[in-house]
Amino acid sequence: MTSSADVASHAGVSRSTVSQILNGHDHRFTPDMVLRVRQAAEDLGYRPSVAGRTLVRGTSDIVITLIPDVTIGPPLRELIDLITQELATAGYTNLLRLASTGASFEDAVLGLRPMGVVSLAPLSPDQRTRLEAQNVRVVEQSLEVQIAIDGAIGRLQAAHLGRMGYSRIAAAMPLIPRELPFATARAQGVRDWCEAEGVQVVDTLHIDMARGAMSHPTTMFGHAQLGVAAYNDDVAMAVVGAASKAGLRVPADIGVIGVDNADFGGVSSPTLSTIKLDLALSSHAIVEALVRGDGLPTSSLEDLSRQFTVIQGESSALTPSGRRPNH
Amino acid sequence: MTSSADVASHAGVSRSTVSQILNGHDHRFTPDMVLRVRQAAEDLGYRPSVAGRTLVRGTSDIVITLIPDVTIGPPLRELIDLITQELATAGYTNLLRLASTGASFEDAVLGLRPMGVVSLAPLSPDQRTRLEAQNVRVVEQSLEVQIAIDGAIGRLQAAHLGRMGYSRIAAAMPLIPRELPFATARAQGVRDWCEAEGVQVVDTLHIDMARGAMSHPTTMFGHAQLGVAAYNDDVAMAVVGAASKAGLRVPADIGVIGVDNADFGGVSSPTLSTIKLDLALSSHAIVEALVRGDGLPTSSLEDLSRQFTVIQGESSALTPSGRRPNH
DNA sequence: CACATCGATTGTCACGTGTCAATCCGTGGA
DNA sequence: TCCACGGATTGACACGTGACAATCGATGTG
């Protein structure tokens, strides 16, 4: 394991010179000296020890990103990639940790003296407090913002179903406790739009996602021309499956729109209408806030709604006017 | 940021005493002294600095797990969780990094002097060489093992379809270059089983997973009673969708089995038959190999096949004997 | 009573780094 | 010739930790 002392002796200079040149203070030195040191570091494959640097600086260049407890599809993956790359450009190292891995998070991570923590899922208030007590910068997807986003998605789904001509609208949510707060916000968003537009709201459908659970659908579809705003594409698929088992036609009798733009929704029959979440522009705001050190600015809801795109599939094409947009 | 010196002065002893008691050498000290130091550390919320420890030991307690460039569903997520927990039990900290985040991996990570790297995706040979040159233990899902696993899955799918009575069998693979080596191994596994059992093999179907691509299915289903072994549940759904658009019945005319046991496959109509991958027992082998320091023992194929379970859905229930197992 | 013994506790060193004060050396002015 | 100047380079320190040698003190032995 080569150290800066090795580089120094290899270049015939003092270790101090090596350290300064490699840390941006090269203007104090002769050009050929700079070149010689750089070359020596290159030859020896020198990588400064994070441990040594952390020790002297009091804080490391490490940022820990907490990954929420959901399946990580292409969009979320891309967001993480972007955050990692932008942090790298700013000189920081992004490392990941699953939020599902118990309380061990703080024990395991705080010893690293990370420069900051990015939490893609809401943190508990005392978790946040403890992190900040250790001078760790925190940028999180707060519960408020998350709920605002979910509400906006619910409204967007309802608006789509209304535009397509469904006269009654319901939300469909999975029976997973962990998802409850978000599901509630979604359903509220659906209700909000319907009340504002004077469209009839039907009680929220609770969908059991266990294998085969929909084989014997109940009379949950007691309405003709019902539009269903599903929690995600999986739930949307369950609704389509249940309707099919009940002998109802999609989209003629029941319309469905999901969220996520999952692969299977684009190739099933019928193809699923869905909402695509574009997370790209958030990454910049996150990294910016982290590096500057202040909190993440609460985006206005106008800004948020721009991040969503309705993708028209066959599952909600009630009216003949429902054409597929070019994509 | 409290250091061991703070704990020492708080307990009225020397820093050396603190260090020894907190590192398992407590048998050398009086019980009440041990208690006093432990209490002081607790009171001050002391967490030893990874940097300091790394510096003096020459290597850190950090393990970096490289996450492959695929969507991370519940099974993979659970594997990562298990690895993290088992490593924590052994005193190591597991941190994650996406494999897709460019070549910056080595620059960013090697400075941490990690104890080891777990790669859930095959590494390039020179990557592995460079890691080992820095005394980093490497445990990877080698290309050979990955291909052996895929071959076994393909055989299992073909065997299921054959058992269900489909007289002709085809593999269905997505058009994604990144997946090509694995897809090829799967198709080969399907072919192997068919040749061994004397069942007719049909040319591999190449499935375009772009939205709406299957709306105008070609004449790819030129065979009655065709069994299709799909690359995953998404591809299986595409096959079902295309069959449906072509006016063919599933499972009567075409049988389909996927891989992954994804949620949507259990609630669609028809429900998808699939293969569930049980990754639990691999985590133990991985951590074991990493902590011991030798390479990951190449599991025999018999062992591997035990990790797979066929889940019977409606999409491959050609024969009346095809009953749904209790689960 | 002197001394060896042994358990309990402490002192010291090294790890690799970044920063800043200190030193070196060549040049120009008085 | 001497000194001040200033740019180029180096020395020394601190960061927090774990391991090991060294020290302390009390007890038992001759």
- Please name the CATH topology of the largest domain in chain A: Rossmann fold
What is the highest CATH level, the class of the largest domain in chain A? Answer: Alpha Beta
Number of helices of chain A: 13
Distance N terminus to C terminus of chain A?
Answer: 52 Å
Supply the CATH superfamily name of the largest domain in chain A: Response regulator
The count of domains of chain A is 3
Shape of chain A: elongated
Largest interface: A-B, 72 and 71 residues
Per-chain topology:
The structure is a homodimer of 327-residue chains.
Chain A: H1 4-11, H2 15-21, H3 31-44, H4 50-57, E1 62-67, H5 74-89, E2 93-98, H6 104-110, E3 116-119, H7 125-133, E4 137-140, H8 143-163, E5 168-174, H9 180-197, E6 200-201, E7 205-207, E8 226-230, H10 233-245, E9 254-257, H11 263-267, E10 274-277, H12 280-292, H13 301-305, E11 308-311
Parallel strand pairs in A: 1-2, 1-3, 3-4, 5-6, 5-7, 5-8, 8-9
Antiparallel strand pairs in A: 10-11
Helix pairs in contact in A: 1-2, 1-3, 5-12, 8-9
The structure holds a DNA duplex (30 and 30 nucleotides).
Short descriptors:
four-stranded parallel beta sheet; DNA-binding; 13 helices; Rossmann fold; five-stranded parallel beta sheet; alpha/beta; homodimer; disordered C terminus; elongated; 327 residues
Please describe what this structure looks like.
- With 327 residues, chain A is an alpha/beta fold.
- Chain A folds into 3 domains: 45 residues, no CATH class; 85 residues, Rossmann fold; 134 residues, Response regulator (Rossmann fold, 3-Layer(aba) Sandwich).
- Helix content of chain A is 44%, strand content 15%.
- Chain A is built from 13 helices and 11 strands.
- In chain A, the strands form 3 sheets. In chain A, strands 5, 6, 7, 8 and 9 form a 5-stranded parallel sheet that branches.
- In chain A, helix 5 links the parallel strand 1 and strand 2.
- In chain A, helix 1 packs across helix 3, helix 5 packs parallel to helix 12 and helix 8 crosses helix 9.
- Chain A starts with a helix and ends in a 16-residue tail after the last strand.
- The C terminus of chain A is likely disordered.
- Chains A and B meet through helix 4, helix 5, strand 2, helix 6 and helix 10 of A and helix 4, helix 5, strand 2, helix 6 and helix 10 of B.
- The first copy, chain A, binds a DNA duplex (30 and 30 nucleotides) through helix 2 and helix 4.
